[in-house]
TrEMBL record:
Record protein name field: Acetyltransferase
Coiled coil region boundaries: none
Superkingdom, taxonomy of origin: Bacteria
Active site: Y123, F409
Keyword Chloroplast attributed: no
UniProt-annotated stretches for the region Disordered: 143-167
Name of a matching Pfam family: SCP2_2
Key words of the record: Acyltransferase, Transferase
Organism: Streptomyces variegatus
Amino acid sequence: MEIRPTTDDELGVFVDTMHAAFGQFPETPVEGGGLWWSALETDRCLLALTADGRPVGTAAAYSFELTLPGQTLVPVSGVTAVGVLPSHRRQGVLNAMMRHQLAGLRARGEALSVLLCSEASIYGRFGYGPATYTQRLTVPRHRGSLAPPRAREAAGAAAPGPDNGSVEVRRRAECGEILEEVYDRYRRAQPGALSRPHRWWALRAGQPPISPAPRYVAVHRDAGGVPDGYASYSIESGTLTVDETIATDAAAFTALARFVLGHDLVSQVVFQHVPPGHPLRWQFADFRAGEVGGDMDWLWVRLLDVPRALTARGWFTDGELVLDVDDPFLGEHGRYLLTVRDSKADCVPTDREPDLSLDVRDLGSVYLGGTAPSTLVRAGHIRAHHPGAAALADTLFRADRPPHCLHWF
């Protein structure tokens, strides 16, 4: 079997093979893009070929930036389009492609790789762990009134204040530049968020609001008229579904939520991709107004270079932790001393006794601060070598704000 990059002339072969692996047929191409795979980077698409040259597997990667705790931006590969023809499954094709791809990502000098899982049971064995999570919030319109923020009324605490901005409704086709600019501002401050390169917007590649699917967009502008948030939505059979709500501050998010919850001729509002623990539920006058559903993992993270990855993110508590990290898929093992001082980390090999022993996939899960190490200790994934190790790890790995990823790839 041969695994090699796809040539420009073979993009159609790659797309056909990928779809065949999932039992699907490619959509009809449209002028100017508009297909979810329009933004594939041909030189980062891999084909697995039999000895007689038949394509039987695919794997690809996008070039993104990932925002880490502390608002650090790092390049990452977004792994996608991984599939093997049904006739060649369980013959080592997937393992071979993943090894080949991981070696290539390291050769690019990247310390991290990310992906979204079609099946959660597949990618843990390749070293990926779930690191961000998402939920769906369904709100009956007649119960969706928002209460005033008590903290501000009582003590002037930080909370969404009176909105001095405005909301305007546009068609998706009319506001592409606004969406691109607002999303880029948002993702630079949000841990776990991925960049959306300009070519994605230009090619309309992905899901709404990037794709050309018809949508209305509520655009929020601050008091100075500068766009600082948007909500992309559609209405069908009395249900208003918000694809995504992007806001650069709490006041803009609240204003957009109030707008969609007050839409006429709507019986319920569904907010897609709400991060767990989001304050919106606490803003309802009726706490039970929002029904949580669709709770699932989203972004999975894989560390390719443990010291570089750990020193790249921001840290918020001083301390030391010895991590004994096993990487069974690549046959690697390392023990590292993580030392955090004044928000910066140093990570070096050590022979000191470990505080925690863990698989690289579990390190990926805790890396962004969205999964507490103590949770994985209790689950039997991480071994704590002394009573205080889990609590120390929880304190060190916490993020400045919960990680969340909206981008689909």
